[in-house]
Amino acid sequence: MSEEFKYQDIELAIRRAIEGGLFQPDEKLPSIRGLMTQHQVGKNTVIRAYQVLEAQGWIYSLPRSGYRVAERKSSLDNQASEPSRVDLLSMSKSILAAPVIKHNMPAGSAHPCTDSPAIRSLYAEIGRHSRMQTHIPSHYQLPPGNDQLVNQIRKICRDLGIDARLRDIAITNGGQQALSLAFRALTQPGDIVAVESPCYFGTLLLLESLGLKVVEIPSQLTTGMDIEALKQAISRWRIKAVMVTPNFNNPTGALMPLAHRQALLDVTESIPIIEDDVFGSLGFAQALPSLKSLDQQERVIYISSLSKTLDSRLRIGWIIAGRYMNQIEKVLLSENMGSLNLIQSAVAAFLSTGRYRTHLTRMRRLYQSRQLPFAQMLSQAFNSHPELNGRYHLSRPQGSFLCWLTLPAEVDTQQVYQHCLSQKISLLPGHLFANQGQFTQCIRFSVSNLEDETRWQKSLQILAEIIVQQLTRSSGKTLAGQHNQS
Which helix (H) or strand (E) holds 152? Predict the structure, then answer.
């Protein structure tokens, strides 16, 4: 092919990458020089390809900043799924029940790093309070929870811009119980609720257990829940509640911009919103206002926990439910007859020392410092294979310790997951994070425990080889099918 028409190859490759989700809206595209090297063409050829894509509305240019992906609303991308009952339990049980072993690359579970002075201090406090229990009369810790702990949680909320009163806060058994309480306060079995897609599989499993129907609203890696798609879903179905994670969605790490947060409140009008903010304290930059703080109608139920910032084993969460608080406290009392006295009192004492803020600062820096080498190691491993080079996208969240990998559509990450288990590589396949069979070409990683870079680098090289083998087999089947048809 002559140089004159090589721009079409570049144009097609970039367009397919955008369509496949490898590049997200407003994301910077490869440089002109990089594409010249990759495709062995001249500068004018690359520029012409970019100019054609810009004229077609796929991309836009910024002075001295190159080309970026334009926001593009197709009828498919902008549609929510039909309401459906969740059926993920059988699919996820095998993964959740996998034996706990020491992995060479422990990137599957979303547990925080617990190797820190604050965590050691926390467990020393738990030990001290454990010894004190024999000197305290046995009693139930009734809702809303230990007074000192509730007061410390109020201070944490204030740091996040939420001015809650003490009577507005109830302690729960982790964020998961808080979510359950919120959905039960707002819905009945058979009701329709809207969630982001992809969505944390624990939330989907919870909705399955509650007998609720789910509308999955598409979510962008850079902006979170698609507001226009949500608006259309509200116009079609009677949605009883919207559940959203504006700060660092699990699994993608998406951060919803302030304008989108306000738009979300506007389009939902009077529909209750459940705001899951378990990663909200782990942002690398200035925090954005929560939906709760922007809410003028007392319809946002705010949920968070210490599971992602301190230790998931604590099972300390909280809920701020406004007008629904009395109903939620009744459920807490009737079902639990109290909470874990020991853990609540010990965590309250730890938080009162002021070490939590120092710990958060340390963790933010740690997770930010681990996101970069992980991205570099993955790129190095993947780019060494022509079958993968330029055909994947790794999200780079502005907070938390999760990231989301999108691979070519023909990759089945459930099979990749199975092959990785034998190599002691832990990751989570994308099919867990949706109810309609989406994201089978995606993988969620956690970098919270990235300590041995040598092991991780070797594991990523093995992962790349497993993916390439699957791509090669898929390509061979396609060629064989074309040959048979001819």
Answer: helix 147-159
Q: Are 198 and 438 within 8 A, CB to CB?
A: yes
The string of DSSP letters for 407-420 reads --TT--HHHHHHHH
Q: What is the total residue count of the chain?
A: 486
Indicate the pTM of the whole model: 0.82
Neighbours of 315 (CB within 10 A): 18
Q: Nearest-CA neighbor of 255 among 277, 231, 233? A: 277
pLDDT at position 301 is 97
Residue recorded with tokens 């079995």: 189
CB-CB contact of 338 with 141 (8 Å)? yes
CA geometry: angle at 129 spanning 123 and 133, to 5°? 145
- Note the pLDDT of residue 482: 43
Please tell me which residue, 324 or 333, carries the higher pLDDT value. Answer: 324
DSSP annotation of 26 reads: T
For the beta carbon of residue 222, count every other beta carbon within 10 angstroms: 21
CA distances (Å), origin 307, targets 134, 160, 316, 400, 463: 28, 17, 7, 12, 29
Name the strand (E) or helix (H) holding 62. Answer: strand 59-62
Decide if 157 contacts 320 (C-beta within 8 A).
yes
Are the CB atoms for 218 and 78 separated by under 8 Å? Answer: yes
CB 201 within 8 A of CB 433: yes
3-state SS of 335-360 is HHCCECHHHHHHHHHHHHCCHHHHHH
Would you call 341 exposed, middle or buried from its count of C-beta atoms within 10 A (0-12, 13-18, 19+)? Answer: middle
Question: Which residues does 91 contact at the CB level (< 8 Å), separation at least 6?
Answer: 431, 432
Give the CA distances from residue 398 to residues 252, 331, 402, in Å, rounded to whole numbers and listed in that order: 11, 36, 10
Measured CA distances, 77 to 53, 158, 222, 390, 477 (Å): 19, 37, 15, 22, 28
Would you state the pLDDT for residue 346? 94
What is each CA distance from 468 to 55, 343, 407, 416, in whole angstroms? Answer: 34, 47, 11, 10
Characterize the bridge pairing of strands 224-225 and 393-394. unpaired
Helices assigned H by DSSP within 210-340: 227-236, 258-268, 291-294, 325-336
> How many CB atoms lie under 10 A from the CB of residue 159?
13
Give me 291's structure tokens: 């939906």
Q: How much of the chain exceeds pLDDT 70, in percent?
A: 90
DSSP annotation of 296: S
